[in-house]
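Why this split exists: single-chain examples teach little about how molecules sit against one another. For that reason, every record in the complexes split bundles all components of an assembly together and asks for one structure covering all of them. Below is a record exactly as it appears in the raw files.
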Amino acid sequence: MLIRKAPDIRTSDITPKAVYLRRREFIQAASGAAVAAAAALAPPAARWASAQTGQKLANVKKSPLSTTDQPNRFEDITSYNNFYEFGTDKESPAQNSKRFKARPWKVAVEGLVAKPAVYDIDEFLKPYTLEERVYRLRCVEAWSMIVPWIGVPLADVVKRLEPTSKAQYVEFTTLYDPGQMPGQRANVLPWPYLEGLRMDEAMHPLAILGVGLYGEVLPNQNGNPLRLVVPWKYGFKSVKSIVKIRFVEKQPRNTWQVMTPNEYGFYANVNPQVDHPRWSQAMERRIGEFFRRKTLMFNGYGDQVAHLYTGMDLRKNY
Amino acid sequence: MRGPRTGFRPRASGFGLDSGESLAARASGASGPKPDARSPKPALIFPTAVARKPITLLKILIVVAGLIPAAALVVGLFTDALGANPVETITHQTGTTGLAFLLITLSVTPLRRISGWNELIRVRRMLGLFAFFYATLHVLTWAVLDHFFDPSAMMADVVKRPFITAGMTAYLLLVPLALTSTNGMIRRLGGRRWQQLHRLAYLAAIAVVVHFWWLVKADVTEPQRWALALTVLLGFRAWWTLRTRLSSRF
């Protein structure tokens, strides 16, 4: 019987490590190219016929705090929303908010504050200069967008309202009006929607009160006429269609925390290391992209905001 | 599609049966050819077959209807009509369609018993295979677009996320059913064992509804509807089994 010696494999025949480690990149690039080709074949945004019919906002200042990432399409930002007051499907808010009336609009300022009052929205906003802030938005559901918001620094508003030294937190409440907000006719969440920030979070330069996007007044489905934008926290913190701002001593019980306390906390800082009990937060799908990307600590705003949480256990304070 | 064949085909109508009468007779029938009352002779010409047999027409309709959701997704993808998050739309659509086909499959037996149209049994495996087809697309979307075939990430997902555990369980339960859906496999397993194996479909359907229920954030309206439908479908069977047991006792 002839027993053959196994042929020697020359080292030059073996795929170098650097190359085989890159095969994934290669496949991604190849499939990315295929997707791009598919996208190129599609008629250019045919279905989307630009819906920008809103009122333009004048005298908007650019901000150095904006990200340089490419903003998502207006159509995506305004057709893919979580705003349960108008229904729980992503398309529901755009469909069900068409007749929503954002004027006249009152904002009540209450609690531990020098001048409790009810303001007309336009009076309320008059003192401030509008700024464009292009921010990353990371939803707790593991998708994200880039939104060119227009708003005013929340810190300026808070300072002007003169909270007393006892005020430790700010609480924001959404309008409760089931006549206009059909989603509120179902007991999906305990209405009205309530959110809160710690005082130092509210005073952080990144936090704004949003009044517009893409140079126009906020579409109803995005929280017209006044919403919070806190880009280092999951989207649900950024409460929409605000009618009440209250300064309080104790930590507010925000709606999602009331709803499911083991899944949603008060802080809700974007944190890839702390998973939602039912899904991972390590990755996210950027709207407009096919494959998922890594989620950044504090949604990439760590340099600016990490100091707010030094010494805190972010696993407990999720 | 299984076309009219002169070979072993008539068996299918005999073995695609559900619980109930003359099961043993049919299982033993595997050993010897038996004339099948429902298809007395093989259809020779296609249009005649359609005209003579409503079941053939139904089969064609099911194939067409079964491919429409997949075709709609492909068209939607290329015309940018799947919304801002097409991957999510694909995931949801393939999942829901798979569940729908699974429940339609499970409604064949109740429909048969209520309507008395026993030939319906001959579309059941096809319906089940469509359920498996959409479940496969659903799992592939997750594996490729969510995890890019990263086995460790996929395993972590399956182990750590109860809703994915439930979903994967459902899929793994469907795999042996799809694999044994051929006439040859029915013959090899024997009618009774094949039927017992295919009762896994009940478990799979329950696991799918649990999977759906566990993944929603707050609004359980939709999974509730599916759960209700499944309860009704399984309820029929529970009732019939109970009734048979009770009547056999007295």
